[in-house]
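Need tokens for this chain, all 264 residues.
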Amino acid sequence: MNRLRQVSVAIPFLTCLLVTGGKSVHAYGARDFRDDHKTQIQGLALPLNSMDGLEVKGIDDAGGEPVKIQSEVASYRGRRAVRIVNDDGPAGTVSGGQVLAIVKASDFKDGTIEAEVAGFPRQGAKPSTRGFIGIAFRVQDHGSRQGSRRGSQYEAFYLRMTNGRADDQLQRNHSAQYVSQPDYPWNRLREENPGVYESYVDLVAGAWTRIKIVVSGRRAQLYVNGADQPCLIVNDLKLGETHGPVALWTGSDTEAYFSNLTIR
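Here are the structure tokens for all 264 residues:
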């Protein structure tokens, strides 16, 4: 078919914009002329002033559930936003707990993801907590698997919010991070390839911070606060050229806020 007709997709539980186009982003629940159960779309815009359409899932490094998760909509610094608190438990216990809030209407391969995020260590967190917040993409196997210890597979960029203005330069150099779970967590990447999958970027803990992720094939770039140049470049995404949902991401012992997500 030489010309694609514009298709209007209504998703009642999300306030979003859907426009037919050529990007590798899909919406579930609509008909495509090339596929019976997906429609290819150009853009998805979510203000994130509701939990509707988000599937919240907690995992730890062993594939189990973190100690405690709070997920809700709350007012933060002048706006309504999705709030996720990842509680890793009493000081001295470490689960490596992560939380994914999967955008169920998304199926992302290549394109651009943007969001505004704010994060900081939760009240009562361990002194080593940095405030971990970011975006996961190409999420795989986000349904539960009985007895699995691997948890979800995904690529992600995240920020260590308190590192951005730390007094120690080495700590600053660990401000932005790429991971590919579960096989390439941050510690493995740092040990095997020091400095390759993390970098410095100026951050203020608790402040609204705009992040942009640009993905093409096995290459991804992270931009922060409208910068013209990326602060982190990855040329070998570990899951290869796959596709899957986008998700809001938080790390252990973090209070995180998310607003104005766009996928195109």
